[in-house]
Design goal:
The protein is an alpha/beta fold. It contains 13 helices and eight strands. It binds zinc ion.
Length: about 350
C-alpha cells in the first residue's frame, strides 16, 4: 500500500494531529510537572506507546514523536545530557511503531518534533546558533528514524520559528510550523502574529498556524486572519482551557470556578487548570468552525485527551475507531429515552 503524503491528505480533507503529550503523560503519572522532561520514552516506554495508541484509536492521523522539551538545553538543566540522543531515538521509534500499525486502512504519518528552546534571545547570535545546532541534531535523528514529516511548534519568537523552519526544510521532509504567542498577542521579538505566519509561508512552510498557549476562544480570531491571508494549509491546535480576552493564554488564567482550594503557586498553571477545562462540545465547535473556514490541519495541544481528539475528528465529519464508543445517552439509566427505563426513575431526573 502506498502511503499518502501529508499534502495529499490535506488537499482532500481534514488531517488530525494529537499534541499535548506533556500534560497527558504528567496526568498519567509518568512525568514531573513544572520540570517537564519527556523521560517517559526511556523510563516508561509502554506508557508512551499506550498514549500514542489511544490517540490513534481516537483518530489522530499523525503520530508525533514525543520529543517536546527533549532538547540538549533541557537535558543540561536536569544534568542528563548523555541521555539526549537515546531519549530522542526511543521517542521516534515508539512513534514509528505506532504509525506503521494503523487501526484503519490508511497508514499513519510519523512526525519528528522540535519546539521552543527557551534559550533563544533576540539579537544574541550566540544563543541563536546554539538553538540552531539543537534543532539540527534533533532533525537529524528524526530523519534517521524514518519520520514522514517534521513539526516545529510552540514558538513565541518569530526568528526562532524561522530558524526552526530553515533547519526542517534542509531535511527535504514536509514541514509543519506553528507558533504560540503569549498574552501580549505579538511575538516576543515584536513581529505580529499574522506577519510571522506570512513570513513562514514565504520561507516554505507546508503547513503554517498556531498551537498551544491559547484556548479556542483566543486562538480563533487569529486563525481567521491567517486563513484569509495565506494560501498554504493552516494548522489550529489550541489548548483545551477557557482562555479569555483578559487572559489570552493559560499562563495567567485565574480560577473562575469559585474554587477555594488554591494552587500552591502564584498561577493555576500548570497544575490547577482543571476547573477551566473546555467541554468536549466546545472543542468540537472549535474544530468545526476552523474546518469550515478552510483550516484542514486540526488537533488539540495541552489538555488533549483521546476523547477530545475523537471529538475533533467527528466534528469535521470523520468516523474513527473510537466512534464506536461515542456517547449514547439513549440508554442512560435515568436520562435515557430507552423504553425499558422505568418511569419512576426517568421522572426523578430533575431532583437527581
Ligand atoms: Zn501545548
Amino acid at each position: 500500500m502506498t502511503k499518502k503524503s501529508l499534502k495529499e491528505r490535506l488537499d482532500k480533507g481534514p488531517v488530525i494531529c494529537a499534541e499535548g503529550f506533556l500534560f497527558e503523560i504528567e496526568k498519567r503519572g509518568y512525568m514531573s510537572s513544572g520540570e517537564f522532561v519527556p523521560m517517559v520514552s526511556l523510563e516508561n516506554p509502554e506508557a508512551l506507546l499506550n498514549l500514542h495508541r489511544d490517540f490513534q484509536h481516537a483518530g489522530s492521523d499523525i503520530v508525533q514523536a514525543f520529543t517536546y522539551n527533549g532538547h540538549r538545553e533541557k537535558m543540561r538543566v536536569i544534568g542528563k545530557e548523555e541521555l539526549l540522543e537515546p531519549l530522542n531515538r526511543a521517542a521516534l521509534q515508539i512513534a514509528k511503531d505506532v504509525a506503521i500499525s494503523p487501526l484503519g486502512k490508511e497508514p499513519n504519518l510519523m512526525a519528528g518534533n522540535i519546539s521552543n528552546s527557551n534559550i533563544w534571545e533576540q539579537d544574541d547570535k550566540k544563543s541563536q546558533l546554539e538553538v540552531e545546532k539543537m534543532f539540527r541534531e534533533m532533525v537529524g535523528w528524526a530523519v534517521d528514524e524514518g519520520a514522514d514529516l517534521l513539526i516545529g511548534e510552540t514558538f513565541y519568537y518569530a526568528e526562532e520559528a524561522y530558524t526552526a523552519l530553515k533547519v526542517m526544510k534542509e531535511s527535504g521532509l514536509p514541514s509543519v510550523i506553528t507558533i504560540a504567542p503569549y498574552g501580549q498577542n505579538v511575538m516576543r521579538d515584536d513581529v505580529s502574529i499574522l506577519d510571522t505566519c506570512k513570513e513562514l509561508e514565504q520561507q516554505g512552510g507546508d503547513v503554517v498556524g498556531m498551537n498551544c498557549h491559547r484556548g479556542p476562544n483566543t486562538m480563533m480570531p487569529y486563525l481567521k486572519e491567517i486563513r484569509k491571508a495565506l494560501k498554504c494549509h493552516i494548522a489550529g491546535l489550541p489548548i483545551t482551557y477557557r482562555t479569555t480576552d483578559a487572559h489570552p493564554t493559560f499562563f495567567n488564567l485565574p480560577d473562575n470556578n469559585g474554587c477555594t482550594c488554591h494552587s500552591p503557586h502564584e498561577t493555576t498553571f500548570p497544575t490547577a487548570l482543571d476547573p477551566m477545562q473546555c467541554s468536549r462540545y466546545e472543542i468540537g465547535k472549535f474544530a468545526k468552525e476552523a474546518y469550515d473556514l478552510g483550516i484542514n490541519y486540526l488537533g488539540v495541544c495541552c489538555g488533549a485527551t483521546p476523547m477530545l481528539i475523537r471529538e475533533v475528528a467527528e466534528a469535521v465529519g470523520l468516523k474513527v475507531p473510537a466512534s464506536k464508543y461515542r456517547e449514547n445517552m439513549e440508554n442512560h439509566y435515568m436520562f435515557g429515552k430507552n423504553k425499558r427505563i422505568p418511569k419512576h426513575i426517568k421522572d426523578y431526573k430533575d431532583k437527581a
